[in-house]
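call fold(seq) -> tokens
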Amino acid sequence: MANPLIKITDIKRNFTLGNEIVYVLKGIDLQINKGEYVALMGPSGSGKSTLMNLLGCLDTPTSGNYILNGKDVSKMRDDELAEIRNKEIGFVFQTFNLLPRTTALDNVALPMIYAGYSKSERKERAIDVLKQVNLADRMDHQPNQLSGGQRQRVAIARALVNKPSIILADEPTGNLDSKTSVEIMALFDEIHAQGNTVILVTHEEDIAEHAHRIIRLRDGVIESDTIK
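ret:
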């Protein structure tokens, strides 16, 4: 079997609050293969956001190992993690995180600036991914001229632009009405069908149902890991 895209071994994450140590993740073992569609679920305080931050290289574990695409990222410095994030991970957040006074096209092209692409390469690739998310006619619009669903499509296009190993989506429909949520999840299904690895953090069962594998956390451990 090929090496897993993500291999986490005995990951622990503690936080110090005053004189107290809070044990958030208590020894997580997890493998995710290329091309999987995984939902991370769990109640508030289960550790799912902490685990997502570790998977997304936004944080490092207190102990344990994290191998991402063959690289040990668990011991990396902040600048090395920033580079890995930009190359390997496409983020989609509940709040879209778009630059307000910038067109959809320039918002999408932004990660490519850090990756060192030329202006013409950035524009061409950004146009391609905006077409992919059905926003070809909204490229010159700023976020305040777009609906919530359109903003999330811009955010998804931005996540795809550097051809990352993983699309990591944190409650991607949390700010959307139910009809728009259905459209956005259909888009994630398409993105997965094109061979992308998708990891979705959600507390909503109907959103998690789109994934092919559901991992449930409780009290800092994996309670269940179900492949559908």
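The mean pLDDT is 94.
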